[in-house]
Amino acid sequence: MIAEGTAAPDFTLPAAVDGDIQTLTFSEYADSRITVLAFYPADFSPSCTDELCSLRDIDLFNLQRDVTILGVSTDSAFSHREFARQNGLEFPLCSDNDGRVARRYGVLGDEIRGHSRLAQRSVFVVDDRGTVRYAWTAEETAQLPDLAAVREAVDSIQDDRSAIERYQEAHDHFKYGQSEHESALTALADEEWHVAAEAFGEAEYYFEEAETGFDTARRFAESDNISRAGDRAKQKASHYRQSARWYIGAARRYGEGEMAAARDAADDAEAALDRARGMEPIPDLYSV
Predict the structure, then answer these.
(1) Domains in the chain, number
(2) Are 137 and 34 in the same domain?
(3) For tag attachment on the chain, is the N or C end more exposed, with fewer CB atoms within 10 Å?
(4) Which of 15, 48, 94, 188 does the annotation list as catalytic?
């Protein structure tokens, strides 16, 4: 069986889809959605009926939007069509008639109850990037999947999706903050004290929003890489925010002629800015 964390093999197979026989390509049908891929030995066997009907019930009542289900066995697409009709299955059933897809997933059985070239009962949860996030195969012929574990795997992906959405929003705020910060530094160098203070104020606002957003992404994340990225990004945004705050005080004091106090504030601001710039760049959404 292929391991969790690996890319799900793509495939094209004949399938029973909404009462018709069609050619289905896994990657195109999934279309960047979370997919529950269920292999089963044969249509009309009691255990297989229980497995797929259980997945049907998850599909209709428990899984959230943007989750799709595919069934795969070595039966013909015509057998699948009748099996789906009799059991009210509304998701596609793919015909892996030579077992090559089951073999690629590592779930092709040598012999099951006297029948050769049948898929072992297995469930894979594939995320919206095509990575296997959950993999299970039955140790005994009649064993059914743990539906709670399937739901938990789907939920963990959706938690990461929420985390990434918040990370993206925070990343946008961070970029706005950097832009305002650079404009403010230019105004400060030109001794436009009021303009500089206003621009640093805008930068502080965006960095504070970014810091909050990165922290939310860190807390929502299920995956370690997203959590770590959120934590690093939060620290970098915090250093920039502190720099902007100190520069606001420096610009105001320069404008009021308090040169010594202004230089002290500017020194503190530059130290915070050095800490921020010394950290590694914040990755964008697609690098997390």
Answers:
(1) 2
(2) yes
(3) N
(4) 48
